[in-house]
Amino acid sequence: MSNPSPRFTGLFIPVEVLNHPELTLLEQMLLSWVDALYSEAKGGCYASNEYFATKLKVKENTIAKALTSLRQKKLIEDVSFDGRHRIIRAKIGSYVEKCQSNSALDLNPIGVGFKSNAELDENPKPTYIRDQSIDQSIDTPPIPPQKNPVIPKEEAIASEEILNSSSVEKKKRIKTPSEFSSKVKDLAEKIVNSLVRKKPNYIPPRNFSDFLTHVDYLLRLDNRDPQLVIDVFNWALADSFWADKMYKPNPAEYLRKQFDQLEMKMNAKPPKNTNEIDRRMRHKDGSLLDGSKEFEF
Predict the structure, then answer these.
(1) What pLDDT is attached to residue 152?
(2) DSSP 8-class letter at 90
(3) Residues 6 or more apart in contact with residue 203 via CB below 8 angstroms
(4) Which domains, from first to last, does the chain contain?
(5) Does the predicted TM-score (pTM) go above 0.90?
(6) Is residue 237 within 8 Å of residue 279, measured between CB atoms?
(7) 270 vs 128, residue with greater confidence
(8) How far is CA 94 from CA 74, 76, 168, 273, 288, in A?
């Protein structure tokens, strides 16, 4: 049986075949040759391995291995074999049809010349024949997109209901009480007094509401004991490493972030005596002996 005479002007490889995760470049080219050399009289491609080896510039056993691989991937099938000559047929149409969805084809029905169809495997249409519908699509002026589409009133109302429904997850925010408890104010006062005793020229935070908020978080959200909070803070002020770090724009916020670490350090390195943190004595009215003023809310 003589080798086929090419009637095409080039090979066509669909993008689905190019993107096949297991096909080598040789297998892609070989599959396209089998598809392009389809003979209606024979019902498939009757080109020999020697013919393919010459065209693809490889050895015949390499072609044989590539054909076996394509058979295993169900991209070609055997039509007939008379003991000497075999006829095979490419199954590109079936594979492409699995990869493409109808919606994608509707958006770009002539992107590759014509729609994929598994029936083409049984009676392929040569891919080199020009699709006449291309000329019509070029001559037909495109419909310009509408810049500001008008949304029907019913759809607009439905969209608004969906956005306002409880199913839409909203960002959760922690609400701070507008008026802080006396326990929060008392602890805040003790923290500020400790800072003033350490540095008499210390100026309390300007945004004192934010300062009170983090004190409130320490007690209400973190469930810290007020006495433990002030003990840990005073220990940090007495420690040479942590002392300067306590003078942040918002000391309460920094204390809250570092509390667990500070408590662990304090337990590992307690003060030498109970008077080490606060050596200053107070007058009976609560003022300090050195004349420092207590912080007032």
Answers:
(1) 60
(2) E
(3) none
(4) 15-132 (1.10.10.10), 182-268 (no CATH)
(5) no
(6) no
(7) 270
(8) 9, 10, 42, 86, 92
